[in-house]
Amino acid sequence: MENKAGTKPPHHVVIVGGGFGGLYTAKALNSKDINVTLIDKRNFHLFQPLLYQVATGTLSPADISSPLRSVLNKSKNTKVLLGEVSDIDPEKQNVMMGGEKIPYDSLIIATGAKHSYFGKDEWEEYAPGLKTVEDAIEMRRRIFMAFEAAEQETDEEKRRALLTFVVVGGGPTGVELAGAIAELAYGILKEDFRNIDTSETQVMLLEGMDRVLPPFAPELSAKAQKSLEDLGVSVVTKTLVTGIEGDIVTIKQGDESKQFGARTVLWAAGVKASPLGKAIAEKTGSETDRAGRVIVEPDLSLKGYPNIYVIGDLAHFAHQTGRPLPGVAPVAMQEGQYVAKSIKQQLKGNTIPPFQYFDKGSLAVIGQHAAVVDLGFMKLTGFVAWLFWLLIHVYYLVEFDNKLVVMIQWVWNYFTRNRGARLITGKDLPAPVEVNSKPDYYPAVNNNKTVNV
Amino acid sequence: MENKAGTKPPHHVVIVGGGFGGLYTAKALNSKDINVTLIDKRNFHLFQPLLYQVATGTLSPADISSPLRSVLNKSKNTKVLLGEVSDIDPEKQNVMMGGEKIPYDSLIIATGAKHSYFGKDEWEEYAPGLKTVEDAIEMRRRIFMAFEAAEQETDEEKRRALLTFVVVGGGPTGVELAGAIAELAYGILKEDFRNIDTSETQVMLLEGMDRVLPPFAPELSAKAQKSLEDLGVSVVTKTLVTGIEGDIVTIKQGDESKQFGARTVLWAAGVKASPLGKAIAEKTGSETDRAGRVIVEPDLSLKGYPNIYVIGDLAHFAHQTGRPLPGVAPVAMQEGQYVAKSIKQQLKGNTIPPFQYFDKGSLAVIGQHAAVVDLGFMKLTGFVAWLFWLLIHVYYLVEFDNKLVVMIQWVWNYFTRNRGARLITGKDLPAPVEVNSKPDYYPAVNNNKTVNV
């Protein structure tokens, strides 16, 4: 289409989702020949890799959030809209947002994933997951409320259940959560209570496979387990959770079922793709995998729809290794940059080779002073790995708005451990009376069945 | 009562409320002859004077919160309990908390005040006040959502209402809120939007009396008004709010009523005492004033109950000047310290003279670089006053846990304006569809009736 002056109107790219994938696409599309509309239901980009530090009272949500408008305010070709995309019409080339049709020339869907309970959605009430700021605040509330309730509990068994923290899932998030809770219980909080000794706290990390951090090299898994145990975490592998109800967790080890009492159960075990994936797959005849991720072409587009791309945690890209790429920030970032480059080159009449993920390695942090880093050609553990982890995170945090101040502030918060971040807040504060109540439904903890950890 | 060894058990002081009054009492009672139990329904002390900075997206809640357990963890004689006191028995000398009786020898009630709508409680829905962290998060959500909705609004009148912010009440909180919103609209956010020009925002500060900051000297009120106007705030005095409903604010100026559209109305106009005040007054035969504050004796105790004290915003102490002392932090702090000293001296058989408030002055800040300070013998305005304001706040923030780090972090956050703190969060996020909806109930803005400001 040509306008009055005989020049083409700018190519309009709509990006749905302001996570790593969407944001890096938008930043890379900064060009006067392209108009970009970025739609997100939140007004900020969240640095999810550090969300566990909000959940455990070290950082504030604002420390790991960047307003999308600020990050993109120098990209004058980019408009940010706060809203939720309810539908997509791939034939007429528009997306529906709050009753309004927004037309696109190219569409990038990057709405990510949320946690999944493998069909046991009723567990969510007892075992919250960690994907949003609200999730983190809720975890923080539960963790610190458990210590508060234990301080007031006179029944020994109930107190033991209150001081038992179970993290389900031994991936990076689970490892990071378990390590941070152990540091709280055995270090940071130890002077704070008068009736309880927080060193009696039990922190359990449950993993179904035979080792934590399954994607890492086995020797790193072993190192991570050792570091966790040094912090006081009980690492329990080859263990499946088969029930979570009230304060009772049921697990299965081989053929044996066991039960134990635990007030605080945190979920770090599985994810499923955002529902927009299924919607676009149905409309375009694309396939989805078991987790709801959309199977994409080698250039990250959808079959038959070369102007629709799916990237990040929502995409199932298996062209490189035969297995889908993992749902981590570097994959999303590289996919976003690839799609941006591809669109720019297409506008010049060029095509670029298929997407190739360059795996720079994996890393997970264990407490304040240890980590494991798997770079493929090199493996790091302990304090050196932790320093490496810190540098990488600081580097990518800074990229958001290219400001030294954010980096310094964050490092400062990290080292000084913003003490106020332990505050218990929320609209639905538990009635303080409940904290001290001794409800009838509270099941007896059968210590004979307690896992020996 | 004597115990087996023939020595007296320690005197037990129960403090209800961990605000400035309760916390300063507890800190001053650090003595091995006294056991202290501090009860609060939150697990943190909140530095309320800076709450407006959370509401306007400069600081995080954690920056102005200190966990009570951390602040008091060196006071080994002090136990902190999270819970709500539901009843007090002044004859049997115990307080009820969650079904449990806690006996006391001395009792200090310092549960403060919340905002009051002068009987118009239905206004709370449209015009939230600012007393808790949750209040601040809600204000922040409303302020930033208004800009987001304006960006998507195509109807000019509705957009004008979305970009109209009304602060009700010209005391320090109102002045601080209005100044901070003006700085957001005319400075910080001005590059962030594509459809709206945030400089078209209108920020109105409504005050019933003939000047803002009525407790200050008139020349400081004039200076404050000038500073606010320089920032772009419309200061409207001698104006009463008579209606707030939906997006319509009704005001009365003299005999004339006017209406105008404003999506965001913030309440900084009045407070009423916490309900525990009325409860204890009824049980002890004490009187309360119109705001529900308990009228106390010259030593801050209740008539006929020399071991029960009421301090801080909950107390009506008029023995010094004939008028009640204002509900500000320095009054609560000095009262707490007085009561602690009084109890300690009584245990030694001594009495001390009646409480005397030493008024060090009043201060209010207007935006990032101006303030007014009234020290009685000296009045400061502008940047010098702002520096003074900063020093005072830093000093008292630091007192909480005597750590340099908190001070540096806070000053750092203040100067760099933690950008992430602009995040819109909350369990009950407004459905993004609503943001863009054009509800039928939306009343037409009658510009003929708009106040000429």
TrEMBL record, chains A, B:
Please list the residue ranges annotated as the FAD/NAD(P)-binding domain.
Answer: 12-336
Which of the seven top EC classes does this enzyme belong to? oxidoreductase
Listed GO MF terms: NADH dehydrogenase (quinone) (non-electrogenic) activity
Task: Please give the InterPro entries that the UniProt record associates with this protein.
Answer: FAD/NAD-bd_sf (IPR036188), FAD/NAD-binding_dom (IPR023753), NDH-2 (IPR045024), NDH2-like_C (IPR054585)
A family per Pfam: Pyr_redox_2
Catalyses which reaction(s): a quinone + NADH + H(+) = a quinol + NAD(+)
The question of whether Transmembrane helix is a record keyword is answered with yes
For this protein, what is the EC number?
A: 1.6.5.9
The domain of life for this entry's organism is Bacteria
Every copy of the External alternative NADH-ubiquinone oxidoreductase-like C-terminal domain together lies at 360-416
UniProt keywords, alphabetically: FAD, Flavoprotein, Membrane, NAD, Oxidoreductase, Transit peptide, Transmembrane, Transmembrane helix
Q: Which residues cross the membrane?
A: 377-398
Q: Which family does it belong to?
A: Belongs to the NADH dehydrogenase family.
PANTHER family reported for this sequence: EXTERNAL NADH-UBIQUINONE OXIDOREDUCTASE 1, MITOCHONDRIAL-RELATED, NADH DEHYDROGENASE
Q: What is this protein called?
A: NADH:ubiquinone reductase (non-electrogenic)
Q: Which organism is it from?
A: Calothrix parasitica NIES-267
Lineage per the UniProt record: Bacteria, Bacillati, Cyanobacteriota, Cyanophyceae, Nostocales
